[in-house]
Design a protein that fits this description.
- With about 250 residues, the protein is an alpha+beta fold.
- The protein is about 20% helix and about 30% strand.
- It is built from four helices and twelve strands, in the order H-E-H-E-E-E-E-E-E-E-E-H-E-E-E-H.
- The strands form two sheets. Strands 1-2-3-4-6-8-10-11 form an eight-stranded antiparallel barrel.
- Helix 1 packs parallel to helix 4.
- The radius of gyration is 18 Å and the shape is globular.
């Protein structure tokens, strides 16, 4: 019965996301964002969780995408997102984080925000590792508030790498830091062809998306990503952004 209800809920949500994707000509949420080079420096927490991502001391390289969920123009609040993709053990795992609270209840609720930092970003939905469930999070480190504008973000990362502490917690336990992400320039807008992520199909090694909400979420991702991008964002740069210039010798976006 539970599986049937999950399938029914997932099918309904998938249909809604499919319609939204057609209306928005590609991505129903997070239609535009900025891409950065990302360096993940992992050191573990001092305890063994059962996942190389949480336990190993290593440096990984990949890409980060920061975005506004509904695409509302600043200074209106929006759900802000951090998407990560990196290379590890021959795989390309992904992790999506969005603005949430940090308390036991707040970490399970999305929270609109007007600033990239300070703030709390969480996975919202749990993962299973070695028989226990965990939530993942990110806590940006910035020496001053960063309004949730793409032009401000691009300038800040050009000035100095933006640091994001990586956190893990059981659903009701304290957050523990297991690494950090360093976002580096150049900022690369992708409004015309947004980068797509699917962390349910590409989880970190040793972590398995867990729970019925994750399964429902999977229907939504699959339905939305069946719709090809058709000039998402109508060929414009992200709202509130001045197109950042790529540095000499850098890769094209």
């Amino acid at each position: 019965m539970a599986r049937s209800l999950t399938t029914a809920a997932g099918t309904a949500l998938g249909a809604a996301f499919n319609v939204a994707a057609h209306l928005r000509r590609g991505r129903p949420l997070h239609p535009a964002g900025l891409l950065f080079d990302a360096e993940l420096r992992l050191h573990g927490t001092g305890r063994t969780w059962g996942s190389p991502f949480l336990d190993e001391r290593t440096v990984l390289r990949g890409t980060a995408r920061l975005s506004r969920s509904a695409g509302l123009p600043p200074p209106l609040p929006d759900i802000l997102g951090v998407a990560l993709r990196w290379e590890q053990a021959g795989l390309h795992p992904e992790l999506l984080l969005a603005t949430t609270g940090h308390t036991t209840l707040g970490r399970r609720l999305l929270r609109p925000a007007t600033r990239w930092a300070p703030g709390m970003y969480g996975s919202l939905f749990p993962y299973e590792v070695a028989g226990r469930r965990v939530l993942l999070g990110g806590l940006p480190r910035a020496d001053r508030p960063l309004p949730a504008r793409f032009d401000v973000l691009a300038r800040e990362v050009e000035r100095a790498p933006l640091l994001l502490d990586l956190l893990v917690a059981t659903p009701s336990g304290p957050w523990q830091m297991f690494g950090e992400v360093r976002l580096r320039p150049p900022a690369r807008p992708d409004a015309a062809a947004p980068t797509r992520f699917n962390p349910l199909r590409h989880p970190a090694p040793g972590l398995r998306p867990a729970g019925w909400l994750q399964r429902v979420r999977g229907f939504a991702y699959d339905a939305a990503q069946r719709v090809p991008d058709q000039g998402a964002g109508h060929g414009r740069e992200p709202l509130g952004a001045e197109p950042p210039r790529a540095r000499a010798g850098s890769r094209p976006p």
